[in-house]
C-alpha cells in the first residue's frame, strides 16, 4: 500500500511516500480500515520528532484519526461488518491507504455524514466534548474562556461550549482567527497578541470565568488562570505554545478553583463505552447542526508533511485533512 512514512525521527520534510508498505493485519479485537481521509492534529507534529507520549517503532505513518471503510475483521470483533463506513482513533498510522484500529476506538458513521468531516471529528471534538462534559461539568449559563480558539481542539471547544449553553469568550492571536471563532459560536473575542489577556478577560467577566480551556499553555497559562472565578475549573489540554507552564498554588486556593487534567486518549482506552456514548452525542449534535466542524484545507497524501509544517507554523485553523486516496 501507499503510506507516508516516518523512517527516522525528524521534521515533516523527511517523511517518505512509499508505495510498497505492507498492509497491516488486524489482530484480535481490531478492524482493518481502507482509509478515505485522515484528520491532522498537533500530536502528528510531535510524534515524528519522538516527542509524543506514544512512541511507535520505526517506520510508521503519522495520522491519529481517520474515516474509511471496514475491509477485514480481527478475531472476536462484533458489531462491525465488511463495508461499514467508520471513523476511528489510531494515534498513528492514518497517513496511509490502510490502517488497523481497535474496534473499541472505532465508531460507525451515521448515514448522510460527509466522510471528510467524519475524518476530522473524532480527536478534536472528542477531546473538547470529554473535557467540557466529563472533566469540567460545564453548565448552561456559565462562562467559558477558550485559548487557541481557532485551532483544532480550540474551535471544537467553542462550538461544543456554545451547544452546551455556555457564554463563550474566544481568545486567539489574530483577528482572522477570532473571526472564525465568532462564526462558530463565540460570544466575545480577545486578541492576545494586541491586548493584555488578564485585563481583557476581567473587563468581559468581572466576577471571573467558570471554565478555562487551555490547549496553548506557555506564557498564557498564568494570566489566564488569574481570571478564574470562584469554584472555577481550569482544563489542562496541551502546550502548543511550547513551554509547560508552572502555576503558583495559592491561585487555585484563593478561588476555590480546580486544575483539571484532560487525557482524552486514555479516557478512550479506559472507558470505551463512555467514549462511544460521547461519539454518538457528537454525531447527533452534527446532525442537528449544533456543531459545524470547519475543514480549512485538504492535502493529498504526498503532501501530508506540508500539512504538518503548516500546523507547526501556526498557519492552520479548524481542521485539516489528508486524503489517503490522493497521492499526487
Ligand atoms: N489533552 C488531550 O487529551 C489532548 C487531545 C488532543 C490535543 N491535545 C493538545 O492540544 C493542543 C492543540 O492541538 P490541536 O490539534 O488543536 O492544534 P492546533 O490546531 O495547531 O491548535 C493549536 C493552537 O495553539 C495556538 N498556538 C500558540 N502557540 C503556538 C505554536 N508555537 N505553535 C502552534 N500553535 C500555537 C494557535 O492559536 P493562536 O495562533 O491563536 O495562538 C493554534 O491555533 C496540542 O498541544 C495537543 O497536543 C491534547
TrEMBL record:
A Pfam family this protein belongs to? ADH_zinc_N
Q: Which residue ranges does the record assign to the Enoyl reductase (ER) domain? A: 10-322
Positions the record marks as coiled coil are none
Question: What SUPFAM superfamilies is this protein classified in?
Answer: GroES-like (SSF50129), NAD(P)-binding Rossmann-fold domains (SSF51735)
Q: Which CDD domains match?
A: QOR1
Record key words, sorted: Oxidoreductase
The keyword Manganese is assigned to this record = no
Q: Give a GO molecular function annotation for the protein.
A: oxidoreductase activity
| E.C. designation(s) | 1.-.-.-
- Specify the protein name: NADPH:quinone oxidoreductase family protein
Instruction: Supply the source organism for this entry.
Output: Novosphingobium anseongense
